[in-house]
Amino acid sequence: MDGNLRAMIREAADYLRSNGVTEPDTGVILGTGLNGYSDRIEDPVVIPYAEIPHMSPGKVEGHRGQLIYGRHKGKKVVILAGRYHYYESGDIVLTSFPARVLVELGIKRLIITNASGCVNESWKAGQLMLISDHINLTGQNPLIGANLDEYGPRFPDMTYTYDPELRSKIRKKASEAGIELTEGVYTMMTGPSFETPAEIRMVRIIGGDAVGMSSVPEAIIASHSGLEVVGISLLTNMAAGVLDQPLTAEEVTEAGRKAEAEFSRVMDIAIEI
Ligand code: HPA
């Protein structure tokens, strides 16, 4: 895929442009159980992934598999309601392709959202966390292979990926709106098995506050091109071993439904600011 990756990204972006997705300001990737946020877009252009060249339709419960484009909070927003996860194929290029297409469309900011397990024992399930940094435990990187120089450098800096100034503005607005928004380090595992209690203890020791199976590939792609990145995690459950009970995929989607209102308010802030 590497040799013609550039052409494939262009083909997907050209298709979207010719269907009205023009000069978006902000890209949004919605996580598991959080796809309902896309209903807020005014006069939306809705394009199923199946129509977009080279875009793999994800099949995960709680994901719609649609691109939605329109105005919201004074911005032109393109939303990916449905994420293709690394664990679906083990192909990191496929996983990060949608983010590459958003970059090609010319967005200035990428807002990445996810459902994740809460590793930090002083927090509770149902809370929202702004991502301050990440730890990539997948052993993978979406930039492996020939570097596409027109998008960014071979060795991109990751120091300010989650822009500190932007984060502090978002947290201030959220706090003014009475929303509890913590901040912490997101750790990506490949999944699809949830972690073991021992793995969660390790994540805590190395500095992770949340654990999930996504987001890092997209953050790396956006950072490579110098975009502003905002990461928002809904902590759907306490991570494995914190409580003496098993984890289920149902509690993840259920938590998404419960937190929808607060999540949407934080999203509105992250788009508007
Ligand atoms: N672990 C990994 N991914 C997740 C979790 C979890 O506990 N919850 C939601 N996504």
Rounded radius of gyration (Å): 17 Å
Domains (count): 1
Task: Find the count of extended strands (DSSP E, 2+ residues).
Answer: 9
Q: Major beta sheet, specifics?
A: 5 strands, mixed, barrel
CATH-scheme architecture: 3-Layer(aba) Sandwich
Apparent shape:
globular
Q: What ions, cofactors and ligands are bound?
A: hypoxanthine
Question: Short summary of the structure?
Answer:
The chain is an alpha/beta fold and 273 residues long.
Structure description:
By secondary structure, this protein is α/β, with parallel strands linked by helices. It has a single domain, classed as Rossmann fold. Helix content is 30%, strand content 25%. The chain has seven helices and nine strands; from the N terminus they run αββββαββαβαβαβαα. The chain has a five-stranded mixed β-barrel, surrounded by four helices. Strand 7, helix 4 and strand 8 (210-212) form a beta-alpha-beta unit. It starts with a helix and ends with a helix. The relative contact order is 0.20. The mean pLDDT is 94. The structure holds hypoxanthine (HPA). The site of hypoxanthine has 13 residues, from strand 5, strand 8 and strand 9.
SSE map:
Layout: H1 5-18, E1 26-30, E2 42-48, E3 66-72, E4 75-81, H2 92-105, E5 109-118, E6 128-136, H3 164-176, E7 181-188, H4 197-205, E8 210-212, H5 216-224, E9 228-238, H6 249-258, H7 260-272
Parallel strand pairs: 1-4, 1-5, 5-9, 6-7, 7-8
Antiparallel strand pairs: 2-3, 3-4, 5-8, 6-9
Helix pairs in contact: 1-2, 2-5
The structure holds hypoxanthine (HPA).
The site of hypoxanthine has 13 residues, from β5, β8 and β9.
